[in-house]
Amino acid sequence: MALDTWLIYLVAIIGLSLAPGPNGLLALTHGVMYGHKKALFTITGGVLGFVVLIALAMFGIGALLLASTDFLLVFKWIGGIYLIWLGVRIWRSPAMELQPIAKGCAMSRFALFRQGALAAITNPKVLLFFGAFLPQFIDPERPLLAQFVVMAATFAVIEFVVEYMIARVATKLRPWLSRTGKRFNQCCGGLFTLIGASLPLYNN
After folding, report:
1. How far apart, in whole angstroms, are the C-alpha atoms of residue 139 and residue 124?
2. C-alpha angle 151/152/157, rounded to 5°?
3. Residue-wise pLDDT tens digits, 8-62
4. Of 1, 128, 113, nearest to 56 (Cα)?
5. What's the pLDDT at 16?
6. Nearest-angstrom CA–CA distance, 5 and 43
7. CA distances in angstroms from 203 to 14, 129, 140, listed in the order given
8. CA torsion angle for 25, 83, 90, 92 (degrees, to 10)?
9. 3-state SS assignment for residue 107
10. What percent of the chain has pLDDT over 90?
11. What is the pLDDT of residues 57-110, one digit of tens each?
12. Confidence (pLDDT) at 100
């Protein structure tokens, strides 16, 4: 993976990880309920779930590329349109309403891990997103496995760090999202729209 492509991918991944989503909300919830140390198991499960989905998306796309590299161009344009649509949706979405959560029965570490993993793997929108997002950065001239390792590892590290930060400051983050959540959604939505409009025109 070329360095300039990776840097663009890194910026996009940071924006993706900061955008509101089920796993970020779960990290926030478990951070409030169980503390940031136990929330690490939730976060780890979610990150591994995302890596599985990245593998499914990339190697599924790779199988099509073996038939014709023209598929990559089609994926890029379809993906770009999808990312623009997603950006508009995020821009227009209201701020998250996070209600106080009563402390329930203590959950085991495995149960927290399982919840994080299932929140990622069972969300079909995530697989659809990766199917639209990842082709923007795939270079058909380079080995797909090496690109997968770099892209999956980059995503895993950034997602883990962001979700842990969310869990760590969960009690302080809740009122902030209530006050500025709409503006935050607009920033994230604008980033996705920009990515969707520009990346199909970018040559690796």
Report:
1. 25
2. 100
3. 889 888 887 887 676 777 787 778 777 888 889 999 999 999 998 899 888 887 7
4. 128
5. 78
6. 27
7. 21, 20, 11
8. -170
9. coil
10. 15
11. 888 877 766 666 666 677 677 767 776 876 787 677 666 555 544 555 567 888
12. 45
Please tell me the predicted confidence (pLDDT) of residue 101.
Answer: 47
Task: Write the DSSP assignment of the chain as a string of letters.
Answer: --HHHHHHHHHHHHHHHHS--HHHHHHHHHHHHH-HHHHHHHHHHHHHHHHHHHHHHHHHHHHHHHH-THHHHHHHHHHHHHHHHHHHHHHHSPPP--------S---HHHHHHHHHHHHHT-HHHHHHHHHHGGGT--TTS-HHHHHHHHHHHHHHHHHHHHHHHHHTHHHHHHHHHHHHHHHHHHHHHHHHHHHHHGGG---
Question: Which residue has tokens 């976060």?
Answer: 43
Tokens 């199988």 found at: 63
Smallest CA-to-CA distance from 123 within 131, 164, 199 is with: 131
Burial of 80 (0-12, 13-18, 19+ CB in 10 A): buried
